[in-house]
Design goal:
9 helices, 242 residues, seven-stranded parallel beta sheet, P-loop_NTPase, ATP-binding, two-stranded parallel sheet, alpha/beta, single chain, EC 6.3.3.3, ligase, ATP-dependent dethiobiotin synthetase BioD
Length: 242
Amino acid sequence: MPVLVVTGTNTEVGKTVVTAAVAATALAGGRSVAVLKAAQTGVGPDEPGDAAEVARLAGAVTADELARYPEPLAPATAARRAGRAPVHPHEIAERAAKLATEHDLVLVEGAGGLLVRFDAAGGTLADAADLLRAPVLVVASAGLGTLNATELTVRELRGRGLDPAGVVIGSWPECPGLADRCNLLDLPDVTGVPLLGAVPEGAGRLDPPAFRAAAPHWLAPRLEGVWDAEAFRTREAPARAR
């Protein structure tokens, strides 16, 4: 898995923190890691973006960014309004492929959901993943609405012949409600892909050493962690949620 694409079912579902957790876990295993943010929006020229946040939390990763636009909009819209060149899927794939020649693992973080447009031609993160023939990790929310959004994302990946590596819950609540607990059981069923982790709510606010120490415990062995999906479900989804 030299390149892993990380997408979300929507914006604000925890993609960056999950990307940081995957990076931290790979670094702990002795692998070299690069993180590529395909297009950063809503951040000024001198402000840290998502790739820098991954580096802050995870440690010694190569943080890269293809383009940056000031307004918090879809990349194609933000590029048009800023009068700047958009990012195209082939550019994302080319940069990721180059990074893969120099690192053991390259994490490509998208913007928002899978089909958010990067350019006027309708290029998306899915197109970049197709060019790379890379698996795609889906980051989902825990609560109401996540089943539909996650299933649609996985269906789109499969329809394009792409490999949905699995689902990670980007922010598992400290006090989960009934919907959250039921979704632990239902997400693998409706998507047909495994649940590969659950990052606790507020993980991004941990100090970096604590984050790095904890990250492997949030991710399943397929992502090089030690998280046990069945044990987590048994603890967090008691009989009344089943």
